[in-house]
């Protein structure tokens, strides 16, 4: 049963691209991977592709992000109903934030002061002031909130609700919903384009990415995916990341074991990059040369070279890697 | 866990034949319409939409049921609780679109007349009925409902005939069939390379129907039934003060002399002997079917594919774990919610039309979108394979291929169907 058709491909790709193109990330950054199943974070040196440390954290770690100065990691410890704050110097848990029950995913405001948390079990988005640790608001949203995106100007937050199948646009001043945009089934992630003009929302069961115009708040395009030899049911978009120049988007396709590369001008899929099994979340290195995918079922992460869109290397991490974030330093 | 009708339907023909239908309306009748708190005003930049009502009915054949193990006695609100949670989910979504969902629950005696209930529901403007009824009751309901433009969701009956020779154009089935369940189990046993099966089955009709489904599955997937034996129901109390002393001695004798087999299959939907089989067999063999390793539409311990979320929500709302019939009812009520959301309409015709369209699908914590078989309105779905504690696997198993949908490896497929929708 433990067939791993992809690992051979990746090894080949590793030898090939690593040797041929020399596309290993040159600068050293630290990537932090949350491992949902074994309650750890794996710290990976992105230059050498080696595991530096594995640290025990709270139960069922999922959503993970980092402060803009790179000093603190914020981690959703879902089954502990808390957000853990980890010092990146000492790699110790130094604090917890009041997250509300079952935090899964969150987004940090552009000014780094506010954390917006999706509470899956309570149909709420919780707004937390990081410094004072106060809960500023609890915003009722649709059933099973998950995806969280924030506009570059910090004025608009988008939450997706997985059973209601909507993207809720929330005004970050009033903490009120201004628009509800219907998307396809089980929307899991919301990502603003760097210029703030569009929000991309993935739908895991629907198998699409809806591109929502941020001015009209209407779906302007729906991206679909097709992979030869794979049934459409196996294509389940989750994580979405768009390059800083706004030109390319990467979409993790879950059990399709691939990351789609999409041209943001034409919305056409340019390439499907074979990674590990059940790929969910993505993160760029700060130099934008590499994007890292978390492959839950194969317990590894894959480095993809952004210039060539080739998989460069896979690194074994903990059990069922869920999220990943890379230190800005 | 999916064999939930137990004794009621078969036994209770006697006194209640012509007795009035309205037995009880559960306190959960009108599900809470509006979500509890609403500080924000959704849809600020649009005029507040007018609230439109989507009313669902739920008719349930109910009589107290016994089980060999007291742990298997179905909860009082089995099925209904799933629909109630879905109505609450629908209303959370409906808040944003000005749609309000409600549920009217009516209980009837097993095998009693349901037409008066139908008339009453139609009079209240209900256009969709969730039915947890026997096959006979369901057909009577469906035929009378047709003239009223009412669609029916079968959330309880696993009878294949309701999707085959007795299929109806206005009945959607969210409950799986016996053949889907048997196929799911058979695929797992074949994957395990446990190919030789001995089959013991009960003497009631539904036991025989499930035994038939297992025989069909054996032929389909390459299992071999090497021995068969009927366990006749000679009338036995489900519990006695003397406990297990006799059973411990009887069951080895009953299973003695079966030809060499890998797995002992049990077909006892009627709860007469099945629970007594595991660990008491003549030969040390695993047991599967209605006891031991069981196929089901849902498992109370499933946490895969976001399942944790519905499990938590259900537990919080009801104080118990979610069972198969709860999931079938949840899915039916969610299908209506989804169609109302997508069409932005409370019009029954538009809702039904949308559900019938080729591209309709629903997410129900089963790892992929679920769609209807267009030829008989059976919801495609995977089957959980589990014991009383945990999920062992889910079928279809790897390698059972299909030219259209792997989910169609479960149950009677299009080329074999006897259904002509009318």
Q: Can you describe what's shown?
A:
The complex is a heterodimer of chains A (329) and B (422). Chain A is mainly β and 329 residues long. Helices cover 5% and strands 51% of the residues of chain A. A 4-stranded antiparallel sheet of chain A has the order 3-2-1-28, with no helix packed on it. A 4-stranded antiparallel sheet of chain A has the order 4-5-6-7, with no helix packed on it. In chain A, strand 8 (103-108) and strand 9 form a beta hairpin. Chain B has 422 residues and is of the alpha/beta class. In chain B, helix 2 packs parallel to helix 9 and helix 5 (178-191) crosses helix 6. Chain B starts with 7 loop residues before the first helix and ends in a 27-residue tail after the last strand. Classes of the chains: A mainly beta (329), B alpha/beta (422). The A-B interface holds A 1, 102, 120-121, 123, 139-140, 142-144, 161-166, 168, 175-180, 182, 185-186, 205-207, 231, 233-234, 236 and B 35, 37-45, 89, 92-93, 96-97, 306, 309, 312-313, 316, 334, 338, 341-342, 361-363, 368-369, 398, 405-406.
């Amino acid at each position: 049963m433990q067939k791993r058709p992809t690992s051979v491909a990746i090894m080949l790709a590793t030898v090939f691209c690593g040797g041929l193109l020399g596309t290993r990330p040159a600068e050293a950054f630290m990537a932090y991977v949350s491992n949902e199943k074994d309650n750890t974070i794996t710290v990976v040196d992105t230059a050498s592709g080696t595991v530096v440390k594995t640290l025990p954290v709270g139960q069922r770690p999922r959503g993970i992000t980092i402060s803009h100065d790179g000093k603190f990691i914020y981690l959703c410890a879902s089954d502990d109903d808390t957000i853990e704050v980890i010092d990146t110097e000492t790699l110790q848990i130094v604090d917890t934030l009041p997250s509300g029950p079952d935090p899964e995913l969150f987004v940090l405001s552009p000014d780094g002061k506010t954390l917006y948390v999706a509470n899956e079990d309570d149909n709420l988005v919780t707004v937390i002031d990081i410094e004072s640790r106060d809960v500023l608001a609890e915003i009722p949203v649709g059933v099973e909130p998950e995806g969280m995106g924030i506009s570059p100007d910090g004025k608009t937050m988008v939450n997706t609700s997985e059973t209601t199948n909507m993207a809720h646009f929330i005004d970050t001043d009033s903490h009120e919903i201004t628009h509800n945009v219907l998307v396809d089934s089980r929307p899991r992630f919301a990502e603003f384009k760097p210029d703030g003009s569009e929000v991309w929302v993935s739908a895991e069961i629907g198998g699409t990415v809806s591109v929502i115009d941020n001015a009209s708040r209407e779906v302007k395009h729906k991206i679909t995916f097709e992979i030869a030899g794979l049934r459409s049911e196996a294509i389940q978009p989750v994580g979405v990341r768009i390059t800083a120049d706004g030109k390319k988007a990467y979409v993790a396709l879950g059990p399709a074991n691939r990351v789609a590369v999409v041209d943001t001008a034409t919305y056409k899929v340019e390439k499907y990059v074979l990674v590990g099994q059940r790929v969910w979340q993505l993160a760029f290195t700060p130099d934008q040369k590499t994007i890292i995918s978390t492959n839950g079922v194969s317990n590894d992460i894959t480095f993809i070279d952004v210039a060539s869109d080739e998989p460069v290397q896979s690194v074994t991490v903990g059990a069922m890697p869920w999220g990943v974030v890379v230190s800005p330093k | 866990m999916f064999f939930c009708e137990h004794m009621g339907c078969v036994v209770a023909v006697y006194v209640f034949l012509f007795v009035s239908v309205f037995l009880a309306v559960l306190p959960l009748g009108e599900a809470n319409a509006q979500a509890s708190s609403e500080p924000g005003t959704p849809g600020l930049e649009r005029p507040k939409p007018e609230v439109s009502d989507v009313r669902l009915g739920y008719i349930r054949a109910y009589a107290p049921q016994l089980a060999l193990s007291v742990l298997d006695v179905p909860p009082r609100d089995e099925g209904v609780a799933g629909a109630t949670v879905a109505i609450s989910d629908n209303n959370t979504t409906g808040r944003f679109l000005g749609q309000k969902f409600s549920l009217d629950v009516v209980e009837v005696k097993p095998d009693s007349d349901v037409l008066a209930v139908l008339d009453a529901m139609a009079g209240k403007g209900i256009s969709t009925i969730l039915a947890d009824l026997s096959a006979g009751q369901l057909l009577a309901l469906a035929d009378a409902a047709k003239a009223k433009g009412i669609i029916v969701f079968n959330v309880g009956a696993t009878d294949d005939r309701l999707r085959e020779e007795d299929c109806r154009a206005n009945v959607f089935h969210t409950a799986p069939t016996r053949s889907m369940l048997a196929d799911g189990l058979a695929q797992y046993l074949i994957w395990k390379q446990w190919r030789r099966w001995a089959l013991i089955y009960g003497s009631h009709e539904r036991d025989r129907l499930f035994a038939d489904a297992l025989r069909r599955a054996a032929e389909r997937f390459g299992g071999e039934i090497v021995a068969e034996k009927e366990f006749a129901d000679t009338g036995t109390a489900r519990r006695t003060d003397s406990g297990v002393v006799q059973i411990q001695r009887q069951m080895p004798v009953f299973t003695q002399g079966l030809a060499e087999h890998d797995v002992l299959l049990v077909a006892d939907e009627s709860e007469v002997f099945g629970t007594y089989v595991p660990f008491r067999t003549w030969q040390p063999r695993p047991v599967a079917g209605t006891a031991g390793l069981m196929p089901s539409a849902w498992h109370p311990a499933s946490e895969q594919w976001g399942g944790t979320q519905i499990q938590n929500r259900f537990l919080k709302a009801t104080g118990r774990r979610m069972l198969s019939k709860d999931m079938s009812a949840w899915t039916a009520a969610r299908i209506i919610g989804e169609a109302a959301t997508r069409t932005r309409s409370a019009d029954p015709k538009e809702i039904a039309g949308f559900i019938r369209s080729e591209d309709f699908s629903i997410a129900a914590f089963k790892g992929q979108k679920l769609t209807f078989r267009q030829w008989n309105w059976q919801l495609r779905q995977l089957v959980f394979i589990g014991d009383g504690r945990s999920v062992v696997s889910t079928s279809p198993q790897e390698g059972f291929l299909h030219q259209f949908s792997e989910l169609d490896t479960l149950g009677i497929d299009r080329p074999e169907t006897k259904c002509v929708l009318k």
